Amino acid sequence: MATTAMNLHVMAAYVNLYGVHTGDQFAAPDDQLDICAIAYVVAEDRPAPPEFYTDEIASIRLIESSARAMAAIRAISDTLDSDPCETEIAPGHTIPDYIEHVSNWAATPPIGATKPPSTSEVIGRILRAAQALGTQTTAA
Predict the structure, then answer these.
(1) CA of 137: how far to CAs of 12, 71, 77, 131, 134, in Å?
(2) CA 39, CA 130: separation in Å to the nearest integer?
(3) Mean pLDDT of the chain
């Protein structure tokens, strides 16, 4: 089984080849994928499910159901300069929304910019997340 760091390296290669979808849904008609959809496809070693093209809520649930995809998404989230927003799952109970955090980071221009992060910036952040995991593993 691949480690999270390995999956992050595969994600970086995928982004290098295909780029990152920054529009509606988790996949574009030309098969370009959102960064969190890429995490799912890589972690589960399968093509993008049809829901990624048509149903955002079902897509989120699929991604959330993959522990390996969520580990990669969480690792990327941990390298970002902001904290994930909190989503209320029951009255008085919130959890960090890592999918929203990472997806919005890759698809939205930062403050003062007019474009989302470049492909190179996305790849760099993914590789920094992989490197951070390697550092955590060797330090433990």
Answers:
(1) 20, 14, 18, 10, 5
(2) 13
(3) 94
Its sign, for the CA torsion 61, 62, 67, 68, is negative
pTM over 0.85: yes
DSSP track, 25-94: SSB-TT--B-HHHHHHHHHHTSPPPTHHHH-HHHHHHHHHT-HHHHHHHHHHHHHSSSPPPEEEEETTEE
CB neighbours of residue 97 within 10 Å: 17
Instruction: Give me the phi and psi of 41, to 5 degrees please.
Output: -60, -40
Specify the 3-state DSSP secondary structure of 1: coil
Q: What is the pLDDT of residue 135?
A: 67
Torsions phi, psi of 72, nearest 5? -70, -45
Give 36-81 pLDDT, tens digit per residue: 999 999 999 999 999 999 999 999 999 999 999 999 999 999 999 9
